[in-house]
Amino acid sequence: xxxPKILKWTGIVLLSLTVLLLIIFGIFFYVYxxxxxxxxxxxxxxxxxxHDAASIAAGAHLYAIKGCGDCHGADLGGxxxxxxxxxxxxxxxxLTSGQGGRPAGYxxxxxxxxxxxxxxxxNKTLKLMPSYETAKLSDKDVAALIxxxxxxxxxxxxxxxxxxxxxxxxxxxxxxxPLFPAEMIDHSYQQPGxxxxxxxxxxxxxxxxxxxxxxxxxxxxxxxxxxxxxxVADITSKGNVGKWTAQEFMTVLRTGNTPEGLKLKNEDxxxxxxxxxxxxxxxxxxxxxxxL
Length: 292
Ligand code: HEC
Ligand code: HEC
Hints:
The protein is mainly alpha-helical. The chain folds into two domains: 53-184, Cytochrome Bc1 Complex, Chain D, domain 2 (Orthogonal Bundle); 201-290, Cytochrome Bc1 Complex, Chain D, domain 2 (Orthogonal Bundle), CATH 1.10.760. Helices cover 42% and strands 4% of the residues. The chain has helices at 2-37, 53-65, 69-72, 108-117, 139-151, 166-173, 201-207, 209-215, 246-255, 271-274, 279-290; strands spanning 79-84, 88-92, 163-164. Helix 2 (53-65) packs across helix 5 (139-151) and helix 9 crosses helix 11 (279-290). The structure holds heme C (2 copies). The site of one heme C has 24 residues, from helix 3, strand 2, helix 4 and helix 5.
């Protein structure tokens, strides 16, 4: 009578494990819900959004160097940028006034709330929108960016709603996937009126916010924020950057070819985005990173 007894115990162990897993999942599911449903009461400081051609051109440059198109498409009509059953279905919103586009009656305040606070019109966090990278943009820059977005033609494109899979939920709750931008923002931060474009350490620091999502806020690199992504390089003076000239740094950020003979893949290090920075902007970034 040994065999049935073993079966019985195996059954009990399997059942207990299943129940335990369900409980753990239930907890993650619950905690995930508390993050998603949290309501924020922020004060959106009003600023005037311009309409002139120079501001719109400045906004187009910002749209390019901040990589907005990677998730919202070059036409701003939105696109699916990740579709994985475990992590989820993630799509950047259609930002135009076309069908499936931004909510009807979307005001300048709503744009600012999204860009500076990471919040939707319902005052809940947007998902995966890297607003922590635009939250500190100067009034002038954020206004130009919004002016550019608003001036783009309508695109009719309805995207599927964002869904997070079980692994995506667990990673988000553990803080391994930046799914809740509103939680990563200092909502009382006072942005400067304008940041003059110049080859200064200060301007480099201002621009470098766009590198922190992957290279981390200390620029020392480490694990990728993208599950399964390539290890991120240290870009402080301690890494290769410390040995390069400004010219070499610019070549790396424009071609992906490093002086050490590495060919960086755009999927790992988005150099097709950094290629669009102006000479002055890259020199300012170099000055700042070298000083670290
Ligand atoms: C990593 C991908 C990603 C990048 C890069 C990105 N976004 Fe988004 N953005 C999203 C996602 C995803 C949403 C939808 C979030 C949601 O619905 O919860 C979104 C939402 C928005 C919204 C709110 C739209 C609405 O209907 O509420 C605005 C405005 C916006 N993004 C503008 C921008 C701009 C401008 C940039 C560049 C500075 C940018 N985004 C960069 C992923 C991204
Ligand atoms: C989407 C993630 C991501 C973003 C955003 C990003 N990087 Fe990178 N970067 C990487 C990864 C990953 C590597 C390492 C690639 C490899 O080893 O093949 C890298 C490598 C580099 C290198 C080469 C370092 C070396 O030692 O060879 C430089 C320089 C660099 N990044 C600068 C920047 C700057 C400056 C920004 C912001 C303007 C930035 N990166 C934004 C992911 C990113």
